[in-house]
Design a protein that fits this description.
491 residues, alpha+beta, 2-enoyl-CoA Hydratase, Chain A, domain 1, 14 helices
Protein backbone atom coordinates (compact mmCIF):
# COMPACT_ATOMS: atom_id res chain seq x y z
CA UNK A 1 0.00 0.00 0.00
CA UNK A 2 1.08 3.54 -0.57
CA UNK A 3 1.96 6.14 2.01
CA UNK A 4 0.81 9.73 1.74
CA UNK A 5 3.95 11.83 2.02
CA UNK A 6 4.11 14.95 4.11
CA UNK A 7 4.81 18.35 2.65
CA UNK A 8 8.18 18.74 4.33
CA UNK A 9 8.52 21.45 6.93
CA UNK A 10 10.70 23.55 4.66
CA UNK A 11 7.81 24.02 2.23
CA UNK A 12 6.04 26.06 4.89
CA UNK A 13 8.63 28.76 4.19
CA UNK A 14 7.20 29.01 0.69
CA UNK A 15 3.56 28.68 1.66
CA UNK A 16 3.47 30.84 4.75
CA UNK A 17 6.71 32.86 4.69
CA UNK A 18 7.67 31.13 7.93
CA UNK A 19 10.87 29.63 9.25
CA UNK A 20 10.11 26.40 11.10
CA UNK A 21 13.29 26.68 13.16
CA UNK A 22 11.80 29.72 14.90
CA UNK A 23 8.60 27.90 15.82
CA UNK A 24 9.18 27.40 19.51
CA UNK A 25 11.09 30.60 20.30
CA UNK A 26 8.84 33.02 18.40
CA UNK A 27 5.41 31.76 19.48
CA UNK A 28 4.03 32.77 22.90
CA UNK A 29 3.00 29.77 24.99
CA UNK A 30 -0.60 30.94 25.36
CA UNK A 31 -1.24 30.86 21.59
CA UNK A 32 0.91 27.90 20.51
CA UNK A 33 -2.15 25.68 20.00
CA UNK A 34 -3.88 28.37 17.95
CA UNK A 35 -0.70 28.70 15.90
CA UNK A 36 -0.65 24.96 15.26
CA UNK A 37 -4.30 25.03 14.16
CA UNK A 38 -3.71 27.81 11.66
CA UNK A 39 -0.56 26.28 10.18
CA UNK A 40 -2.08 22.82 9.90
CA UNK A 41 -5.15 24.17 8.14
CA UNK A 42 -3.00 26.37 5.90
CA UNK A 43 -0.93 23.38 4.83
CA UNK A 44 -3.57 20.70 4.30
CA UNK A 45 -7.17 21.94 4.41
CA UNK A 46 -8.99 20.93 1.24
CA UNK A 47 -10.64 24.35 0.86
CA UNK A 48 -7.53 26.31 1.89
CA UNK A 49 -7.60 28.52 -1.22
CA UNK A 50 -11.25 29.45 -0.55
CA UNK A 51 -10.60 30.85 2.94
CA UNK A 52 -8.95 34.32 2.84
CA UNK A 53 -7.48 33.99 6.35
CA UNK A 54 -5.70 30.79 5.26
CA UNK A 55 -4.10 32.46 2.26
CA UNK A 56 -0.38 31.86 1.78
CA UNK A 57 0.19 35.61 1.55
CA UNK A 58 -2.29 36.56 4.28
CA UNK A 59 0.58 37.13 6.74
CA UNK A 60 4.12 38.26 6.00
CA UNK A 61 5.80 37.08 9.20
CA UNK A 62 5.33 35.12 12.39
CA UNK A 63 4.43 38.23 14.40
CA UNK A 64 1.39 38.82 12.20
CA UNK A 65 0.31 35.21 12.66
CA UNK A 66 0.78 35.62 16.41
CA UNK A 67 -1.50 38.66 16.44
CA UNK A 68 -4.14 36.79 14.43
CA UNK A 69 -3.91 33.73 16.69
CA UNK A 70 -4.17 35.86 19.82
CA UNK A 71 -7.47 37.32 18.62
CA UNK A 72 -9.20 33.98 19.32
CA UNK A 73 -9.96 32.90 22.86
CA UNK A 74 -9.72 29.16 22.20
CA UNK A 75 -8.30 26.73 19.62
CA UNK A 76 -11.88 25.79 18.79
CA UNK A 77 -12.63 29.42 17.91
CA UNK A 78 -9.78 29.82 15.46
CA UNK A 79 -10.51 26.42 13.93
CA UNK A 80 -14.16 27.30 13.27
CA UNK A 81 -13.16 30.69 11.87
CA UNK A 82 -11.10 29.15 9.07
CA UNK A 83 -13.54 26.40 8.02
CA UNK A 84 -15.18 26.91 4.65
CA UNK A 85 -18.94 27.29 4.97
CA UNK A 86 -19.19 24.94 7.96
CA UNK A 87 -22.30 22.78 8.03
CA UNK A 88 -23.00 23.48 4.36
CA UNK A 89 -19.84 22.74 2.37
CA UNK A 90 -17.52 21.54 5.13
CA UNK A 91 -19.73 19.26 7.20
CA UNK A 92 -17.09 16.96 8.59
CA UNK A 93 -13.95 18.75 9.89
CA UNK A 94 -13.25 18.41 13.63
CA UNK A 95 -10.94 19.65 16.34
CA UNK A 96 -10.39 17.64 19.52
CA UNK A 97 -8.66 18.36 22.82
CA UNK A 98 -7.85 14.67 23.42
CA UNK A 99 -6.28 12.92 20.46
CA UNK A 100 -6.06 9.63 22.37
CA UNK A 101 -9.87 9.47 22.42
CA UNK A 102 -9.85 10.29 18.70
CA UNK A 103 -7.39 7.49 17.94
CA UNK A 104 -9.47 5.08 20.00
CA UNK A 105 -12.64 6.05 18.15
CA UNK A 106 -11.03 5.17 14.84
CA UNK A 107 -10.40 1.66 16.17
CA UNK A 108 -13.91 1.23 17.54
CA UNK A 109 -13.04 2.08 21.16
CA UNK A 110 -15.44 4.41 22.96
CA UNK A 111 -17.37 4.84 26.19
CA UNK A 112 -20.50 2.75 25.66
CA UNK A 113 -22.84 0.27 27.28
CA UNK A 114 -23.22 -1.41 23.89
CA UNK A 115 -26.82 -0.39 23.19
CA UNK A 116 -27.35 1.38 19.85
CA UNK A 117 -30.74 3.01 19.37
CA UNK A 118 -32.87 5.50 17.49
CA UNK A 119 -34.94 8.11 19.29
CA UNK A 120 -38.35 9.24 18.01
CA UNK A 121 -41.00 11.66 19.21
CA UNK A 122 -44.37 10.27 20.27
CA UNK A 123 -47.21 10.48 17.78
CA UNK A 124 -49.72 12.24 20.05
CA UNK A 125 -47.32 14.27 22.20
CA UNK A 126 -44.31 15.38 20.20
CA UNK A 127 -42.52 16.63 23.32
CA UNK A 128 -42.16 13.09 24.63
CA UNK A 129 -39.52 10.78 23.22
CA UNK A 130 -38.99 7.03 23.07
CA UNK A 131 -36.13 4.85 21.89
CA UNK A 132 -35.92 1.68 19.82
CA UNK A 133 -32.85 -0.55 20.16
CA UNK A 134 -31.50 -1.60 16.76
CA UNK A 135 -28.13 -3.15 17.67
CA UNK A 136 -26.41 -4.58 20.73
CA UNK A 137 -22.62 -4.92 20.67
CA UNK A 138 -21.54 -8.49 21.51
CA UNK A 139 -19.82 -8.77 24.89
CA UNK A 140 -21.14 -5.40 26.07
CA UNK A 141 -22.94 -4.62 29.30
CA UNK A 142 -26.18 -4.27 27.35
CA UNK A 143 -25.85 -7.77 25.93
CA UNK A 144 -25.01 -9.21 29.35
CA UNK A 145 -28.07 -7.50 30.84
CA UNK A 146 -30.41 -8.93 28.19
CA UNK A 147 -31.03 -5.89 25.98
CA UNK A 148 -32.34 -7.05 22.60
CA UNK A 149 -32.82 -5.58 19.13
CA UNK A 150 -36.36 -4.21 18.86
CA UNK A 151 -36.78 -3.32 22.54
CA UNK A 152 -38.54 -0.02 23.27
CA UNK A 153 -37.80 2.37 26.13
CA UNK A 154 -39.35 5.69 27.06
CA UNK A 155 -37.80 6.50 30.42
CA UNK A 156 -34.36 6.85 31.97
CA UNK A 157 -33.99 6.71 35.76
CA UNK A 158 -37.80 6.75 35.97
CA UNK A 159 -37.90 10.07 34.10
CA UNK A 160 -39.84 10.45 30.86
CA UNK A 161 -37.48 11.14 27.94
CA UNK A 162 -38.33 14.43 26.22
CA UNK A 163 -36.96 16.58 23.42
CA UNK A 164 -35.37 18.78 26.09
CA UNK A 165 -33.70 16.19 28.30
CA UNK A 166 -32.68 13.27 26.06
CA UNK A 167 -29.05 14.37 25.72
CA UNK A 168 -28.65 14.85 29.46
CA UNK A 169 -30.21 11.47 30.16
CA UNK A 170 -28.45 9.42 27.49
CA UNK A 171 -25.30 11.03 26.11
CA UNK A 172 -23.79 13.51 28.56
CA UNK A 173 -21.05 12.77 31.08
CA UNK A 174 -23.57 12.10 33.84
CA UNK A 175 -25.12 9.24 31.85
CA UNK A 176 -22.38 6.67 32.48
CA UNK A 177 -24.81 4.62 34.57
CA UNK A 178 -28.57 4.72 34.18
CA UNK A 179 -31.78 2.77 34.65
CA UNK A 180 -33.51 1.90 31.39
CA UNK A 181 -37.32 1.94 31.66
CA UNK A 182 -38.79 -0.36 29.00
CA UNK A 183 -42.11 0.18 27.31
CA UNK A 184 -44.60 -1.57 25.07
CA UNK A 185 -44.97 0.14 21.73
CA UNK A 186 -48.47 1.00 20.61
CA UNK A 187 -49.01 3.14 17.52
CA UNK A 188 -46.41 5.72 18.41
CA UNK A 189 -47.24 6.09 22.11
CA UNK A 190 -45.12 3.71 24.19
CA UNK A 191 -46.49 2.73 27.59
CA UNK A 192 -44.10 1.82 30.41
CA UNK A 193 -44.38 -1.88 31.24
CA UNK A 194 -42.52 -1.92 34.55
CA UNK A 195 -39.41 -3.69 33.27
CA UNK A 196 -36.13 -1.98 34.22
CA UNK A 197 -32.50 -2.66 33.24
CA UNK A 198 -29.45 -1.09 34.89
CA UNK A 199 -26.80 -0.25 32.29
CA UNK A 200 -23.19 0.89 32.72
CA UNK A 201 -20.87 2.41 30.14
CA UNK A 202 -17.24 1.37 29.83
CA UNK A 203 -14.38 1.72 27.38
CA UNK A 204 -15.60 -0.78 24.83
CA UNK A 205 -13.97 -1.91 21.60
CA UNK A 206 -16.36 -3.28 19.03
CA UNK A 207 -15.20 -5.91 16.57
CA UNK A 208 -16.73 -4.50 13.37
CA UNK A 209 -16.67 -7.92 11.68
CA UNK A 210 -19.91 -8.70 13.46
CA UNK A 211 -21.50 -11.62 11.57
CA UNK A 212 -20.07 -13.97 8.95
CA UNK A 213 -22.47 -16.60 7.59
CA UNK A 214 -23.22 -18.68 4.53
CA UNK A 215 -26.82 -19.33 3.43
CA UNK A 216 -27.45 -22.40 1.26
CA UNK A 217 -30.34 -21.53 -1.03
CA UNK A 218 -30.74 -24.23 -3.69
CA UNK A 219 -27.84 -23.88 -6.09
CA UNK A 220 -26.80 -20.63 -4.41
CA UNK A 221 -24.26 -20.37 -1.62
CA UNK A 222 -24.69 -16.83 -0.34
CA UNK A 223 -22.04 -15.28 1.87
CA UNK A 224 -23.24 -12.66 4.36
CA UNK A 225 -21.06 -10.18 6.25
CA UNK A 226 -22.35 -7.63 8.74
CA UNK A 227 -19.53 -5.08 8.82
CA UNK A 228 -19.85 -2.06 11.10
CA UNK A 229 -16.66 0.01 10.73
CA UNK A 230 -13.57 0.19 8.51
CA UNK A 231 -11.20 -0.16 11.48
CA UNK A 232 -7.67 -1.15 10.49
CA UNK A 233 -6.97 -2.99 13.75
CA UNK A 234 -9.48 -5.62 12.59
CA UNK A 235 -8.18 -6.06 9.04
CA UNK A 236 -7.06 -9.58 10.00
CA UNK A 237 -10.55 -10.52 11.14
CA UNK A 238 -12.01 -9.08 7.94
CA UNK A 239 -9.58 -11.12 5.87
CA UNK A 240 -10.43 -14.24 7.88
CA UNK A 241 -14.13 -13.81 7.08
CA UNK A 242 -13.28 -13.90 3.39
CA UNK A 243 -11.16 -16.97 4.01
CA UNK A 244 -14.33 -18.58 5.35
CA UNK A 245 -16.24 -17.52 2.23
CA UNK A 246 -13.52 -19.03 0.02
CA UNK A 247 -13.58 -22.31 1.93
CA UNK A 248 -17.34 -22.51 1.42
CA UNK A 249 -17.14 -21.68 -2.30
CA UNK A 250 -19.79 -18.97 -2.13
CA UNK A 251 -21.53 -18.00 -5.36
CA UNK A 252 -22.96 -14.66 -4.17
CA UNK A 253 -22.07 -12.09 -1.52
CA UNK A 254 -24.05 -9.69 0.65
CA UNK A 255 -22.12 -7.07 2.62
CA UNK A 256 -24.26 -5.35 5.21
CA UNK A 257 -23.15 -1.74 5.70
CA UNK A 258 -26.42 -0.46 7.20
CA UNK A 259 -24.70 0.77 10.42
CA UNK A 260 -21.25 1.41 8.96
CA UNK A 261 -20.31 5.09 9.10
CA UNK A 262 -16.93 4.55 7.44
CA UNK A 263 -13.30 4.63 8.49
CA UNK A 264 -9.96 3.83 6.87
CA UNK A 265 -9.43 4.32 3.13
CA UNK A 266 -6.74 1.65 3.27
CA UNK A 267 -9.14 -0.87 4.80
CA UNK A 268 -11.72 -0.03 2.12
CA UNK A 269 -9.08 -0.83 -0.50
CA UNK A 270 -8.40 -4.16 1.19
CA UNK A 271 -12.11 -5.01 1.24
CA UNK A 272 -12.43 -4.18 -2.45
CA UNK A 273 -9.49 -6.49 -3.14
CA UNK A 274 -11.19 -9.27 -1.17
CA UNK A 275 -14.40 -8.97 -3.18
CA UNK A 276 -12.63 -9.24 -6.53
CA UNK A 277 -9.00 -10.32 -6.60
CA UNK A 278 -8.68 -10.18 -10.38
CA UNK A 279 -8.05 -6.42 -10.31
CA UNK A 280 -4.71 -6.40 -8.44
CA UNK A 281 -2.70 -3.37 -9.46
CA UNK A 282 -5.67 -1.61 -11.04
CA UNK A 283 -6.94 1.72 -9.69
CA UNK A 284 -9.53 1.48 -6.92
CA UNK A 285 -9.73 5.16 -5.96
CA UNK A 286 -7.92 8.43 -6.45
CA UNK A 287 -7.57 11.34 -4.08
CA UNK A 288 -7.71 15.06 -4.86
CA UNK A 289 -6.02 17.29 -2.26
CA UNK A 290 -5.58 21.06 -2.22
CA UNK A 291 -3.56 22.53 -5.04
CA UNK A 292 -0.28 23.05 -3.23
CA UNK A 293 -0.28 19.52 -1.81
CA UNK A 294 -0.94 18.13 -5.30
CA UNK A 295 1.84 20.27 -6.80
CA UNK A 296 4.38 19.26 -4.13
CA UNK A 297 3.72 15.52 -4.17
CA UNK A 298 4.40 12.72 -6.64
CA UNK A 299 1.14 11.80 -8.43
CA UNK A 300 1.30 8.10 -7.50
CA UNK A 301 0.82 8.91 -3.82
CA UNK A 302 -2.78 9.89 -4.51
CA UNK A 303 -3.69 6.55 -6.08
CA UNK A 304 -5.12 3.59 -4.16
CA UNK A 305 -4.75 0.38 -6.14
CA UNK A 306 -6.28 -3.04 -5.64
CA UNK A 307 -3.76 -5.26 -3.86
CA UNK A 308 -3.18 -8.90 -2.95
CA UNK A 309 -1.46 -8.23 0.38
CA UNK A 310 -2.44 -6.70 3.72
CA UNK A 311 0.51 -4.78 5.15
CA UNK A 312 -0.22 -2.58 8.16
CA UNK A 313 2.40 -0.86 10.31
CA UNK A 314 2.20 1.42 13.32
CA UNK A 315 3.51 4.98 13.40
CA UNK A 316 7.00 3.68 14.19
CA UNK A 317 7.04 1.41 11.15
CA UNK A 318 6.59 -1.79 13.17
CA UNK A 319 4.68 -4.39 11.14
CA UNK A 320 1.31 -5.18 12.72
CA UNK A 321 -0.06 -7.51 10.05
CA UNK A 322 1.44 -8.87 6.85
CA UNK A 323 -0.59 -11.54 5.09
CA UNK A 324 -2.00 -12.38 1.66
CA UNK A 325 -5.54 -11.28 0.97
CA UNK A 326 -8.25 -13.91 0.77
CA UNK A 327 -9.82 -12.75 -2.44
CA UNK A 328 -12.87 -13.91 -4.34
CA UNK A 329 -13.50 -13.41 -8.04
CA UNK A 330 -17.07 -12.19 -7.88
CA UNK A 331 -18.62 -10.24 -10.72
CA UNK A 332 -21.54 -9.05 -8.59
CA UNK A 333 -21.90 -7.87 -5.00
CA UNK A 334 -24.91 -6.81 -2.93
CA UNK A 335 -24.64 -4.06 -0.31
CA UNK A 336 -27.28 -3.35 2.34
CA UNK A 337 -27.42 0.40 2.97
CA UNK A 338 -29.36 2.89 5.13
CA UNK A 339 -29.22 6.52 6.18
CA UNK A 340 -26.35 5.59 8.55
CA UNK A 341 -24.13 4.29 5.72
CA UNK A 342 -21.40 6.83 5.00
CA UNK A 343 -17.88 7.75 3.82
CA UNK A 344 -15.67 4.65 3.43
CA UNK A 345 -18.83 2.55 3.01
CA UNK A 346 -19.80 4.78 0.10
CA UNK A 347 -16.22 4.58 -1.19
CA UNK A 348 -16.39 0.78 -1.46
CA UNK A 349 -19.66 1.09 -3.41
CA UNK A 350 -18.24 3.75 -5.71
CA UNK A 351 -14.83 2.12 -6.13
CA UNK A 352 -16.30 -1.24 -7.15
CA UNK A 353 -18.75 0.26 -9.65
CA UNK A 354 -16.33 0.44 -12.62
CA UNK A 355 -15.37 -3.21 -12.25
CA UNK A 356 -18.33 -5.37 -11.20
CA UNK A 357 -22.11 -5.27 -10.90
CA UNK A 358 -22.98 -3.44 -7.65
CA UNK A 359 -26.52 -3.91 -6.31
CA UNK A 360 -27.92 -1.88 -3.40
CA UNK A 361 -30.67 -2.95 -1.00
CA UNK A 362 -32.15 -0.66 1.66
CA UNK A 363 -32.67 3.09 1.47
CA UNK A 364 -30.18 5.95 0.84
CA UNK A 365 -26.66 6.64 2.09
CA UNK A 366 -25.40 9.85 3.72
CA UNK A 367 -23.34 11.28 0.86
CA UNK A 368 -19.75 11.83 2.05
CA UNK A 369 -17.10 11.80 -0.64
CA UNK A 370 -14.42 13.64 1.32
CA UNK A 371 -11.76 12.37 3.69
CA UNK A 372 -9.63 13.62 6.55
CA UNK A 373 -6.35 13.04 8.35
CA UNK A 374 -5.29 13.59 11.95
CA UNK A 375 -2.82 16.47 12.30
CA UNK A 376 -0.76 16.74 15.48
CA UNK A 377 1.26 19.65 16.83
CA UNK A 378 4.68 18.56 15.57
CA UNK A 379 7.04 19.77 12.87
CA UNK A 380 5.69 17.14 10.48
CA UNK A 381 2.11 17.10 11.83
CA UNK A 382 2.60 13.40 12.59
CA UNK A 383 2.04 11.60 15.91
CA UNK A 384 5.77 10.91 16.20
CA UNK A 385 6.97 13.98 14.37
CA UNK A 386 9.92 16.03 15.53
CA UNK A 387 9.22 18.44 18.40
CA UNK A 388 5.79 16.96 19.19
CA UNK A 389 4.27 19.43 21.64
CA UNK A 390 3.69 17.42 24.82
CA UNK A 391 2.05 20.35 26.62
CA UNK A 392 -1.37 19.55 25.19
CA UNK A 393 -3.33 16.79 23.42
CA UNK A 394 -5.13 18.89 20.81
CA UNK A 395 -5.36 17.54 17.27
CA UNK A 396 -7.29 18.60 14.21
CA UNK A 397 -9.14 16.30 11.82
CA UNK A 398 -9.72 18.54 8.81
CA UNK A 399 -11.12 17.47 5.48
CA UNK A 400 -8.06 17.23 3.27
CA UNK A 401 -9.22 15.33 0.21
CA UNK A 402 -12.03 14.41 -2.13
CA UNK A 403 -11.99 10.82 -3.33
CA UNK A 404 -13.21 9.42 -6.64
CA UNK A 405 -13.27 6.07 -8.39
CA UNK A 406 -11.28 4.99 -11.44
CA UNK A 407 -13.76 6.84 -13.67
CA UNK A 408 -13.32 10.07 -11.65
CA UNK A 409 -16.85 9.68 -10.23
CA UNK A 410 -18.39 10.03 -6.80
CA UNK A 411 -21.79 10.94 -5.41
CA UNK A 412 -21.97 13.68 -2.75
CA UNK A 413 -25.76 13.25 -2.66
CA UNK A 414 -25.50 9.64 -1.51
CA UNK A 415 -26.41 6.35 -3.14
CA UNK A 416 -30.05 5.28 -3.52
CA UNK A 417 -30.95 1.61 -3.16
CA UNK A 418 -32.06 -0.21 -6.29
CA UNK A 419 -34.25 -2.47 -4.15
CA UNK A 420 -35.83 -0.05 -1.70
CA UNK A 421 -36.84 -1.18 1.79
CA UNK A 422 -36.48 0.86 5.01
CA UNK A 423 -36.00 -0.75 8.40
CA UNK A 424 -39.39 -0.84 10.10
CA UNK A 425 -39.25 1.01 13.41
CA UNK A 426 -43.04 1.00 13.65
CA UNK A 427 -43.64 4.57 12.59
CA UNK A 428 -46.00 3.67 9.75
CA UNK A 429 -48.14 0.85 11.14
CA UNK A 430 -47.34 0.83 14.86
CA UNK A 431 -45.61 -2.55 14.63
CA UNK A 432 -41.85 -2.78 14.98
CA UNK A 433 -40.39 -5.43 12.67
CA UNK A 434 -36.60 -5.42 12.82
CA UNK A 435 -36.07 -9.18 12.93
CA UNK A 436 -32.80 -10.74 14.06
CA UNK A 437 -29.57 -9.67 12.38
CA UNK A 438 -27.93 -12.52 10.51
CA UNK A 439 -31.21 -14.40 10.06
CA UNK A 440 -33.85 -14.27 7.35
CA UNK A 441 -36.26 -12.75 9.86
CA UNK A 442 -34.33 -9.54 9.23
CA UNK A 443 -36.36 -7.93 6.41
CA UNK A 444 -33.37 -6.28 4.73
CA UNK A 445 -31.30 -9.45 4.66
CA UNK A 446 -34.30 -11.41 3.44
CA UNK A 447 -34.85 -8.80 0.73
CA UNK A 448 -31.24 -9.19 -0.45
CA UNK A 449 -31.43 -12.99 -0.46
CA UNK A 450 -34.72 -12.87 -2.36
CA UNK A 451 -33.18 -10.50 -4.89
CA UNK A 452 -30.37 -12.98 -5.50
CA UNK A 453 -32.68 -15.98 -5.86
CA UNK A 454 -35.64 -14.47 -7.71
CA UNK A 455 -33.90 -11.73 -9.61
CA UNK A 456 -33.27 -8.09 -8.87
CA UNK A 457 -36.11 -5.60 -9.04
CA UNK A 458 -34.95 -2.09 -9.76
CA UNK A 459 -36.98 0.75 -8.27
CA UNK A 460 -37.24 3.38 -10.99
CA UNK A 461 -39.31 5.79 -8.90
CA UNK A 462 -38.93 6.16 -5.16
CA UNK A 463 -40.66 8.82 -3.10
CA UNK A 464 -38.34 9.32 -0.16
CA UNK A 465 -40.01 10.50 3.04
CA UNK A 466 -37.98 11.97 5.86
CA UNK A 467 -40.83 12.30 8.34
CA UNK A 468 -39.57 9.20 10.14
CA UNK A 469 -35.98 10.33 10.36
CA UNK A 470 -35.00 9.70 13.99
CA UNK A 471 -34.54 12.55 16.41
CA UNK A 472 -31.20 10.94 17.23
CA UNK A 473 -29.20 7.89 16.19
CA UNK A 474 -26.86 6.89 19.03
CA UNK A 475 -24.07 5.67 16.76
CA UNK A 476 -24.24 8.49 14.24
CA UNK A 477 -24.37 10.96 17.12
CA UNK A 478 -20.92 9.93 18.31
CA UNK A 479 -18.07 12.10 17.05
CA UNK A 480 -16.01 10.58 14.23
CA UNK A 481 -18.69 7.96 13.53
CA UNK A 482 -18.93 9.01 9.88
CA UNK A 483 -15.28 9.58 9.03
CA UNK A 484 -13.24 8.56 6.02
CA UNK A 485 -9.57 9.01 6.74
CA UNK A 486 -6.08 8.09 5.68
CA UNK A 487 -3.96 6.52 8.40
CA UNK A 488 -1.43 9.35 8.76
CA UNK A 489 0.83 11.74 6.92
CA UNK A 490 4.45 10.62 6.88
CA UNK A 491 7.77 12.02 5.77
Amino acid sequence: MKEIIKICASLLIIFSCLNCSNKISSIPADIEINDFVWKGMNAYYYWQSDVPNLGDRRFSNQSEINNFSASFATPEDIFESVRFQPGTVDRFSWIVDDYVALENAFQGIRLSNGMEFNLYTNQTNSNNVYGVVYYVIPGSDAEKKGVLRGMVFSGINNTQITVLNYRDLLTNAASVNYLLNLADFSAGDPILNGTEINLSKEQLQENPVAITKVFNEGSKKIGYLLYNQFASSFDGELNASFGYFKENNITDLIIDLRYNGGGSVRTATYLASMINGTNTGKLFSQEIWNEKVMNATAPEYFLNNFTNQILNTDSNGTILINEPINSLSLQKVYFIITGATASASELIINGMNPYIDVRLVGTKTVGKQVGSVTLYDSDTYGRNGANLNVNHTYAIQPIVLEIKNANLENNPEGYIADDYLPENFGREDGIINLGVLGFKTDPLLNKAITSIIAGFKSNTSINFSFKDKPLMNSKSEALFSQEMYIEEIRN
